[in-house]
Amino acid sequence: MLLDFVVVSMAIGLAIPLLVVSFELLITLFHENVRVSDEAAAELQGTYKILMPAHNEAGIIGKTISSLLQQSVRPDSILVVADNCTDNTAEIVKSLDATVLERVDAIQRGKGFALDFGIKYLKETKQPDVIVVLDADCEIDAKSLNLLVTECLKKNRPVQALYLMRHSASVSLKQRVAGFAWLVKNKIRPIAVNKLGLPVTLTGTGMAFPWHVFANINVGHGNIVEDMQLGIDCTLSGFSPIFCQEAVVYSDFPEQVQAEKTQRTRWEHGHLSTIVEQVPTLFKQAITRRDWRLLGLALDIGVPPLSLLVIVASLSGITLSIYSFMVGVYAPLYIFLISFLFFISLLVASWWQFGREYLTVKELCGIPVYVVSKLSVYAAFIFKRQTSWVRTSRDKKDE
């Protein structure tokens, strides 16, 4: 009897994240894009500062800032925090007339501490209406930047831009599969979450915050996925983030294989740690406050990375099949199969509508190989979990 209860609970527990993702994919499939006019995007009422944390970004930060300046962003609207840099990042920023703060702290390292340093500086100066957080290796055009700031001012809430990785036929199959997974995480699912009026998970760059919100949130911590924690903290404080699909930020996957693995390990270990540490608290807060938005955020964040979800689902499917055939109880297996097939069907439909430029039909069949290649990342979460921030190398020469 106890075993039956455990098996049924396992089937239901697995079905929940599968169904959460499935319904998000389904909602987005029927979503109609709303084109924003150039006039609306150009409308800007208020002041903003671009806060850019940077650690040894000499190879890219000049290009990033120059691109912003060429699009009529004033140099005094850019604030770079050169955090524990051992290269000439600060000198490059100064040469472009942008403001740079140099921070040295061998113990408290990472993006969260750099952002906190920038906030403390701005509190002593003239505060802007909006803070835009942009990573040093990201590109955003003037239309997207203005739209992001305008939405933040109008809604008085944090706004997340659409953050995408560039893709091309020349990159490896593994990177193209990763690009499609990124598209699902950063575009397809947030569209649905936003449409439902639920808090959107922040993705680390292309984020705009009302000053009064950002200045009162504690970002000075060592969480390796500070963006996800920041979104949770904003929601708990009453300012849940929203999604602006029309504002787009681009970046590139690292060229080094090891660098890409390091970056993905940090993201995925941080996400899994957040699930373990924060999701139970969010569920409790949702019940205590009777706030369905917190419940929605908990369910969304509670979905593990897609590769891990597929791995766990596959192993659980095998286990449930064996159990069902041995004892003759098929309800748990049916619960799993319905949710898993629903998930796979909608994932394929989403690829057809949004992801064919990332993967061909033949390459789509190679996803299981990519999923298996991620086993070492998830095994490391158990045996050698990454708990501290590690900078990602940008290119082959970057060490």
Globular, elongated, flat, extended or rod-shaped: what is the shape? globular
Whole-number average pLDDT?
87
Oligomerization state: single chain
Q: Give the % helix.
A: 55-70%
Strand content: 5-15%
Strand order of the largest sheet: 3-2-1-4-7-6-8-5
What structural category do the secondary elements indicate?
A: alpha/beta
pLDDT < 50 stretches: none
Query: Helix segment count?
Result: 16
The biggest beta sheet reads: 8 strands, mixed
Radius of gyration: 22 Å
Order of helices and strands: HHEHEHEHEEHEHEHHEHHHHHHH
Number of DSSP-assigned strands:
8
Q: Termini separation (Å)?
A: 57 Å
SSE blueprint and pairings:
Elements (H helix, E strand, L loop, with lengths): L1 H28 L8 H5 L5 E7 L6 H10 L7 E6 L5 H7 L3 E5 L7 H13 L6 E4 L5 E2 L1 H14 L3 E7 L7 H23 L11 E4 H4 L11 H11 L5 E10 L5 H33 L2 H10 L4 H22 L3 H25 L5 H4 L2 H7 L1 H9 L16
Parallel strand pairs: 1-2, 1-4, 2-3, 6-8
Antiparallel strand pairs: 4-7, 5-8, 6-7
Helix pairs in contact: 1-7, 1-12, 1-13, 7-13, 10-11, 12-13
Tell me what the structure shows.
The protein is an alpha/beta fold. Helix content is 56%, strand content 11%. It has 16 helices and eight strands. Helix 1 (2-29) crosses helix 12, helix 7 crosses helix 13 (331-355) and helix 12 packs antiparallel against helix 13 (331-355). The protein is globular and about 75 Å long. It starts with a helix and ends in a 16-residue tail after the last helix.
